[in-house]
Amino acid sequence: MDFAFTxxxxxxxxxxxxxxxxxxxxxxxxxxxxxxxxxxPGLWKxxxxxxxxxxxxxxxxxxxxxxWEEVVVISEEMGKTVFPSPFLANTLxxxxxxxxGDKAQKERLLPGLADGSVIGTLAVLExxxxxxxDGVQTKAAAQGGAVVLTGExxxxxxxxAAGLFxxxxxxxxxxxxxxxxxGAEGLATEPLAQFDATKRVGVVRLDGVRVEAADRLExxxxxxxxxxxxxxxxxxxxxxxxxxxxxxxxxxxVHYAKIRExxxxxxGRFQGVKHPCAEMxxxxxxxxxxxxxxxxxxxxxxxxxxxxxxxxxxxxxxxADRAGEECIQIHGAIGFxxxxxxxxxxxxxxxxxxxxxxxxxxxxxxxSVQGL
Length: 372
Prior knowledge:
This protein is of the alpha+beta class. 52% of the residues lie in helices and 16% in strands.
């Protein structure tokens, strides 16, 4: 396959790169990591003004009507600076509404996600850590003309920033998805401490949260297929973001290997440094190809999305984990210090390895999708 981004997509990449270099370099990322606020509202407003939040939302609902390839482009650039932002969480919330909502729900919910006035997030994962329908045990019980939600969601992205939660719950023999606003009686959130402080996740507790039937997206018990498609899109974007972090770790290691001298010569001339860098490059390029192809598949051949989403996520997380570790080793003692940026990429690689399912889980899923 002869794949190349369009001129418009490359222009988008340059726009994202310039914005992040100017508005959120690593020095700013460090400040945001330590901040008590869940995100930077000023940066969020600028992102919204640039149209990134409206990217995949149709024009009829306040968006730009572009595809998942553009999300992959943005995600990769954000990964290079380990940019802490609810961008992906909000984008996936919009995708869930687009996939499962009716016209009235789309008209009510999507414009706020597109202009940034509301931040959305998916609440699917629970204590079992299963990424399938059986893992959803939060209960949805009919009560009069309404539905009452009871349960707990774990590792929900950007819980403290979100104003809208798309909650998966079990009813009528299957899984349903409900739009629940922050402030709903019985809904509580709690942040979880993370190894990678650029990733904000938390717990969502639902203690008898009452929602109207109109807040249910798709028919009762029939939402899992659509949720699964949205999660696959998220895996592909997450893989692209992870590839960006891996590439930045490799770039940092190579730069240091060129300027750090030992025995009168740059350490990059030694095979013990050159070989790991070359191997990292091969792994990163392989993962990048899978992430790019995954973005193309979502837009052009969605029946294959599950297979390539898992392949991309597994490959990207393994590549990033190795790149972060090797980056520290190539830096030597200074790589273990807070002042050196190597630890930012090491932490992202460790996070990526386990978030959204381990590589082993996704390799098993690829085999399952293939009928093996």
